[in-house]
Amino acid sequence: MVTTVIRFINIILAALLAGTSFGIWMGFNPAHYTPSTYIEQQQNLVGSLNTLMVSLVILATIVTLTAAFLQRKNKAVFITMLFAAAFFASCIFISRFGNLPIQKEMLTWNAASLPENWTVLRDKWWSFHIIRTIAELIALVLVSWTSVQKQG
Question: CA–CA distance from 31 to each of 27, 48, 123 (Å)?
Answer without folding.
Answer: 12, 21, 8
